[in-house]
Amino acid sequence: MNIISAEDFKKQILSYGCIDAGFAYIGEELAEKTCGSRDFKYALSVAVKLSDAVIDGITDSPTHVYFHHYRTVNSHIDNILLKAGMDIEKMGGRYIPVAASQSITAYSGFFQHKTVARLSGLGGIGKSGLFIHKKFGPRVRLGSLLTDLPFETSETFNGDICGDCNICVKLCPAMAIGSKPFDINNPDDTLDRHACSEYMKKHFQHIGRGVVCGICVKNCPKGRK
Question: What pTM did the predictor assign?
Answer without folding.
Answer: 0.91
